[in-house]
Design brief:
The complex is a heterodimer of chains A (323) and B (622). Chain A is α+β, with helices and mostly antiparallel strands and 323 residues long. Chain A contains twelve helices and six strands. Classes of the chains: A alpha+beta (323), B alpha+beta (622).
């Protein structure tokens, strides 16, 4: 089998401007949604209490919400989680109250939810309406703040680390364009999370950072080829070299990302609610990763004026290439 | 030319065998077990207890599959859950004859069912996090400021006593925030006080201040003293928590310091958070009382007391040595007066001893009491849940002033340590607050394992099917390399006993999905070389060598992200990062070295190789 029967180098660079404009628009849209809608942070970041309870029959979420509100919980969120019988309840932090007791108070409140809460009513025996606690999470305010800070620091460390490494291995132009291209992925993933109001939790943060490292891979593979082509072939213009490098690695790009996506899709299908947003962040990251590292990073390198001379001059460079 | 030297093949083989060996325990599952741990620090878990347990099992006609003694517990492995319950009852009855005064916790637990020789080489199954096996997780914040103010309060009391002893007149000693200020009427008194404090209070830093007509001496804790007090506070709180949690009968509690001022408590299998919280927050108290020596020496009275009729005004206790003892009900001192207890040695006789420090009012009471009762015995009791226990009952030899008390004589070093620990364990050194709490039900844990496992399995199958149909034999080699990667990863995780969480399982899946990249790179390169008209053998060599630089670069960038997560991540992110980083390392080895070894084995020895099975090599224009 061979999926990629490419006779000539595909002239990606001819359309470089178009690609850059497309990504600029998506990027701006993502920033817009981030600014206007903001991220829907999970309890881990905001602090508060989260309970996952399961009923033997689907309960009426509205009644649960009412009961919680009448018991003095301000702004409780009640939603289904995975199935209609599993309910996720989030209660924000309240000042003054002994916050670590909130979990028990919520459970007590749930027990009080009146009988016959289902729309059908008939099957609502007492035992059917008794919720079973599956999971409680309580996060104090100091922890959440730290997590957000640590997350930002981790992102910074990844960026600095990758730029330094690429600048050392290749050239600063590559380093800068690779990181710009991939940061634009990160912003777009966050944009999706803001637009759809998906929950941004710690595993999602991990996924975003993992995707950042992974997409830079992609740029690295293309750049490796660019360097190699510059050294081996004379008389090609810079756009031609870039086209050649992208074309000759496109099969690998698609196959690799396809394989990784198979794994991620499997997580989306079998991983359940706990891994849902994690896998979703990865999916967006992988799709935009292909696009940005190939069609954003390469034009950026071109605009920044990469040329053959930067690679061929020093002898030491040449020896490295033989390795 | 496509042949590996012997040492390289041997390396691959050894790595695979080790990988298999350390992955093996994960397949054996777990066997029911009964775990015995001590609830009180005065009762040790040792070989004697082990023989006691074995005897109890024999008496109940239960044959255990193995009895293991480890650092602080005894585990009895059993064939099935029926005998597990039977064994638990038998051991419980033998060790704790009176249920209300249990000295040992006997808990049902699961232990790895792998054969003993595997456990012998430390091949254990992966350590599952709470989200996979269910349980409670608490993150407690120790109030460091509270620890310091508590200490400063007692220093303030000390200073008052000191000023009085040295006849220095002062206009009041007050704690103001994190300082203690002493007022004086004149500079002379202040100078005198400063000289005294410099000698007797090495932890304090003194600064002069003028406040209107008043001369003030402001004392703050020196930085290293502050640090020492805080370290001590966390350590003592951990000790106290240990003692309390032991009572819960949790099979494998985790109590660890995290950062400088936090304590993580993980209780696998515990569902009742309310009870757990209650126990974490409870305080035990320490009391010093006098022993009624006359009555204690009288055999008749003692016999009566042992039967539950002690003389009025006294209580009957059994000392650690096993002898009975009558203790007066009147409390001389409480644990609040005790600032520290350390095991050490008597400076003259070099006997093991316990050194106690009392605060100033405690010291004064102690001085008075000891002056009146030289030659008599005093008892130090630990009162928990309304029940007391005599920790030690030493004889008073001389009057003791100054608040530094030494208990020595007829003690081993171990005993001295135990007593010091018990005395310290009485209460929390600083208040604690729960800042994070997570409870995961056991069914959810099992659910999470199944979900993680299914995602990985189906993803792996999908990738395998694609790789084999696209690259044929090279695809098979790639899949074998990927399996080796999984093997190494699981073996490493088992060997390091790193905590596996649900994000960790996701990381295994993701790492596998990413690791296939290296093999795709290699296979595409080999195809490209073939397309360029190279001979098959040369194409294999060139393909692997050219791809190597790219593989290294791309893995390093991924690793940078992984390490950043490892450094800054906490909780679930950390679990993800550990697996991710390990996976990147194993994937470099397996996708390059292992797959090359296999390819060499298949094609390397053929001198005339007409073609290789890598799928269709399409050439433009053909």
């Amino acid at each position: 089998m061979e999926f990629f029967r490419i006779r000539k180098d595909i002239p990606f660079m001819r359309h470089a401007l178009v690609f850059n404009i497309i990504s600029l628009i998506t990027f701006l849209a993502a920033v817009f949604f981030l600014a206007t809608k903001g991220l829907h942070f999970s309890v881990e970041f905001t602090g508060g209490t989260l309970l996952e309870v399961s009923y033997t029959q689907a309960p009426d979420l509205g009644k649960i919400r009412q009961q919680l509100e009448s018991d003095g919980f301000a702004d409780p969120q009640v939603q289904n989680f995975g199935s209609s019988r599993d309910v996720l309840i989030r209660v924000p932090l309240t000042k003054g109250a002994e916050s670590s007791k909130v979990g028990e108070q919520v459970m007590a409140s749930l027990m009080k939810v009146p009988e016959g809460t289902q729309s059908a009513g008939a099957g609502g025996t007492a035992s059917a309406m008794t919720p079973q606690l599956k999971r409680v999470e309580f996060v104090g305010p100091q922890v959440g703040k730290e997590l957000a800070e640590d997350g930002a620091l981790a992102l910074l460390l990844v960026i600095v680390g990758i730029v330094l490494y690429l600048a050392f291995r290749f050239e600063w132009r590559f380093a800068v364009s690779a990181i710009i291209a991939n940061l634009h992925d990160v912003v777009i993933i966050l944009g999706f999370f803001a637009f759809f109001r998906w929950e941004f939790s710690l595993p999602v943060l991990a996924a975003v950072l993992a995707v950042l490292g992974y997409s830079v891979n992609e740029s690295v593979v293309v750049f490796d080829r660019v360097r190699e082509t510059f050294k081996k072939k004379r008389g090609m213009t810079t756009p031609q070299v870039l086209d050649h490098a992208i074309t000759s690695t496109i099969s690998r790009t698609i196959i690799t990302h396809g394989s990784t996506q198979m794994m991620v899709t499997s997580m989306l299908i079998f991983g359940g609610a706990a891994l849902h947003y994690f896998a979703l962040a990865l999916t967006i990251g992988i799709c935009f990763g292909i696009y940005s590292s190939v069609l954003v990073a390469s034009p950026l390198v071109m605009w920044m004026g990469v040329s053959r001379e930067q690679f061929v001059k020093p002898k030491a460079e040449k020896q490295e290439a033989v390795v | 030319m496509n042949r590996y030297p012997l040492w390289k093949n041997a390396t691959v083989l050894i790595a695979l065998v080790l990988g298999l060996l350390y992955t093996l325990p994960n397949f054996f599952g777990e066997a029911p077990a009964v775990q015995v741990a001590s609830v009180k620090a005065t009762h040790k878990v040792d070989a004697r207890l082990m023989s006691q347990v074995e005897a109890a099992l024999k008496a109940a006609a239960v044959t255990p599959q193995g009895v293991v003694l480890d650092l602080n517990s005894i585990r009895v492995r059993l064939a099935d859950t029926d005998t597990q319950l039977k064994a638990k009852d038998a051991i419980e009855k033998a060790l704790n004859p009176v249920a209300a005064e249990a000295s040992y916790s006997v808990a049902l637990n699961l232990v790895s069912d792998s054969p003993n020789w595997l456990s012998g080489i430390h091949a254990l199954p992966m350590y599952l996090g709470l989200d996979l096996r269910g349980g409670v997780h608490f993150l407690l914040q120790v109030d460091m400021k509270g620890a310091l103010t508590k200490r400063l309060d007692s220093i303030g009391a000390d200073l008052r006593g000191l000023m009085r002893d040295k006849n220095i007149r002062h206009g009041g000693i007050v704690r103001e925030g994190q300082t203690v200020a002493i007022r004086f009427r004149d500079a002379e008194a202040r100078d005198k006080a400063r000289a005294v404090l410099n000698d007797s209070q090495p932890d304090l830093q003194l600064v002069d201040a003028q406040d209107g007509a008043d001369f003030r001496l402001v004392a703050t804790l020196k930085l290293q003293a502050e640090k020492r007090i805080q370290e001590f506070a966390v350590k003592q709180n951990i000790t106290t928590l240990h003692n309390r949690i032991n009572e819960l009968g949790v099979a494998e509690p985790v109590i660890q310091q995290q950062g400088i001022d936090r304590i993580v408590v993980q209780l696998p299998g515990v569902q009742d958070t309310a009870k757990a919280k209650d126990i974490l927050g409870r305080t035990a108290t320490l009391e010093v009382r006098m022993v009624d020596d006359e009555a204690s020496a009288n055999m008749d009275i003692m016999e009566q007391a042992a039967r539950g009729q002690p003389p009025p005004g006294t209580e009957y206790y059994i000392e650690r040595g096993g002898r009975g003892l009558l203790v007066k009900k009147q409390v001389v001192l409480t644990g609040e007066r005790l600032t520290d207890a350390q095991a050490g040695f008597d400076s003259q006789t070099q006997e093991p001893a316990v050194h106690l420090s009392l605060d100033s009012s405690g010291a004064r009471i102690f001085k008075d009491v000891t002056r009146e009762s030289v030659g008599k015995r005093m008892a130090i009791l630990l009162i928990e849940k309304g029940k007391g226990e005599v920790v030690t009952a030493p004889v008073i030899r001389t009057e003791i002033g100054g608040g530094r008390v030494q208990i020595s004589g007829r003690m081993s070093t171990v005993e001295a340590n135990d007593v010091a620990l018990l005395l310290r364990a009485g209460s929390l050194a600083a208040p604690m607050e729960i800042i994070e709490e997570r409870t995961v039900g056991p069914s959810l844990g099992a659910d999470n394992i199944a979900k993680g496992f299914n995602s990985t399995m189906w993803g792996f199958i999908a990738i395998s099917v694609f790789m084999i149909s696209y690259y044929l034999l090279f695809g098979v080699v790639s899949v074998l390399a990927l399996s080796a990667n999984l093997l190494f990863l699981v073996a490493l995780l088992s060997l390091l006993q790193a905590t596996l969480t649900l994000p960790g399982i996701a990381a295994i899946a993701l790492t596998l999905g990413m690791a296939i990249d290296a093999n795709v790179l290699i296979n595409e390169r080999v195809r490209e070389e073939l397309r360029g008209g190279n001979s098959p053998q040369a194409s294999i060599t060139a393909g692997y060598e050219r791809a190597w630089a790219t593989i290294l670069d791309s893995n390093i960038t991924t690793l940078i992200a992984g390490v950043a997560l490892l450094i800054f991540g906490s909780g679930p992110v950390r679990g993800f990062a550990v697996v991710h980083c390990l996976g990147i390392l194993t994937s470099i080895f397996s996708s390059v070295v292992v797959s090359r070894a296999l390819i060499n084995l298949i094609y390397g020895h053929r001198r005339k190789l007409g073609s290789v099975s890598i799928g269709q090599v399409w050439k433009p224009g053909v």
